[in-house]
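Problem statement: downstream parser choked on a complex file, so we are re-checking the raw output for the flavin mononucleotide run. The parser issue turned out to be on our end (a line-ending mismatch), but while we're here, posting the original submission so the record is complete.
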Amino acid sequence: MTSPQSPVKLTPRLETLFTRGRDFLGVEVPIMCGAMTWISEHGLVGLMSNLGAFGSLAAGNMPPELFEEEVKKTQALTDRPFAANLITIAPNYLAHLEILCAAKLSHIVFAGSIPRRTEVELAKNSGAKVMCFASNKSIARRMLDYGADALILEGSEAGGHIGHVSTAVLLQNILYDYGDQVPVFIAGGIATGFMIGHLGLMGAAGAQLGTRFVVAEECQAHDKFKQVFIKARSREAISTPQYSSKLPVVAVRALNNTAMDNFGTLQLDLLKKLEAGELTRQDAQFEVEKYWVGSLREGAVEGDVEVGSLMAGQSVGLIKKVQPLREILEELVHDADVAVGRAQERIAGGSAAEMS
Ligand SMILES: Cc1cc2nc3c(=O)[nH]c(=O)nc-3n(C[C@H](O)[C@H](O)[C@H](O)COP(=O)(O)O)c2cc1C
């Protein structure tokens, strides 16, 4: 099947700067739309790839038949590469992995937690390129030992489930050491081409954005959800606390609303039940994840922006309007080029001054 859309192109100097990311992803523009549960469905993923960038299907904990259908629908929309993002702690995870291997997907992203070596091998043996998240240097090393072909560093500024470390620190902790060995893609807090250009200069293979793509015109998220994003300030995208080490929970970054209060109440309630022996820790953690999946559906799909979760990164404060996806990508490329051009001018100016 051919792509009806003509792809967005990089400028010549960005082509050079991002050669590694383009070759690895097999795309014109190594900008990834991060997988977002309920949001990254076949339409958005297929369009992203048809426009020359890179989409990622969110597997979440979808029933396997539904996920298989989503993979097939995406393949019917585009003949360009795209990924699927697997949540290694989801009950349906292994079934999802099997589906992707059978579908011969070009790229598989392991998310949620650390995949087993055998799972990475299974993915690679199917012919897929494997991408793994790394939240510190030892995990990065381990993932590369397991055979990961590329790394994604996602800073705590990001929307959704997050790690503890900021993008700036991950860059210094991992990108500078591993960026020459494997393609490293950067996520968390990125909403502008200026930032993408500077990340390229630092050695990043490309960038992954989530929050910015939520407000793409073609994104299926509810209009009320998008409108909240347009008005929100960065400081309103807060992360959830963990009340006790007895119930470890992965932090979630979202805009502050009733969903965040309700999560606090749920956590306290689950802790009480844990302490009373009415619930195992695993069951309690399952309840937490079930809450977020349901709550995000209420917000992103049903448009209940008070009670439903509004998962968003701090980059939400940099977003001004709903735009067609092509326009967003063209703007990102244009601004990345401006940033790199300015850097080149500064360097040239510096050299000239040194010589005189
Ligand atoms: C609403 C929403 C849902 C998300 N769901 C997932 C998910 O299911 N799996 C995943 O790996 N990341 C998920 N993410 C993270 C994104 O894939 C991406 O890495 C992140 O949004 C990048 O940071 P940014 O929000 O600052 O752009 C989600 C993010 C948002 C905003």
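For whoever reads this later: Residues 233-311 form one domain.
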